[in-house]
Amino acid sequence: MSNENQASGLTLYEAAKSVGVNFRKNWAPESKTLIANGLKLHYLEWGDPSNPTMLLLHGFAQQCHSWDFVALAFADRYRIIALDQRGHGDSDWASDGDYSPETQQKDIEAFVNSLGIQRFVLMGLSMGGRNSFTYAANNPDRVEALIIVDAGPENVRTGTQNIRNFVEQEDELDSIDAFVDRVIKYNPRRDPIQIRGSIVNNLRELPNGKWTWKYDKILRSPGRMAGTQDPDMTNRLWNYVESLQCPTLVVRGDKSDIIATNTADEMANRIPNGKVAIVENAGHLVMGDNPSGFESAVTQFIKTLHKPS
Predict the structure, then answer these.
(1) Segments forming the whole domain that contains residue 141
(2) Does 1 reside within a domain?
(3) Distance between CA 227 and CA 230 in Å, rounded?
(4) How many domains, the chain?
């Protein structure tokens, strides 16, 4: 939800308070860009730049504003950086259509290096969650702590199919409200005002007056999302999970149709410093479905990082 957007009738701060998000100051993000791995990457920066850094990676078909409530809640304690990953939000699309996990890893490495960040807390949802634990496994000297949000080495097939059905629908509609109605049908747990405030940042108006998604059209083309996951990929992802060295919180929505309960538990068991948190009344989009519950789970985890040894 954008601070500047008034179309929903609520400011970001009013909307955040209405769903129980705690924050001490009406932080406003700075919109910035840099060149990394040959692409212009857009990001939002919140909070005091002298604070420790927290990097946020959104999920597939989302963008940096999907973290607005989270950023507002933690900007009192951290310098928050919410990245638009390649092909999403206001970042460049890949001219060659390359959105492979390996290439996204190179983006993250180049982005972090460009900002000169040495140590940071890393948090990612879904696609961003996989990117997060893969990056953390390969860069243990950089990641102080990791929060994996409804992501893992294995997905529930039903949930993956639901996402595929959603993104492959007709992608040009007459109004923002038409997209809001579509999202409500997909995820009725979300408040319509909250949905509208968030989705407006993920849409653009076309010359013909219709509206469409901001993210790269190739990502929602039929057949782009695989129906089944390559077993070799699954094994590689489990290896990344097992090699994590930093304190890690695995967050799952109790109604998630993407990550099974036993997968989340197994992840926490295989990570040396792993813990699991189940957020009630939340599906796959945990921080959007239950912002206050998500904030509470992450806050409790962060407190454990600073306890005297």
Answers:
(1) 12-159+233-305
(2) no
(3) 10
(4) 1
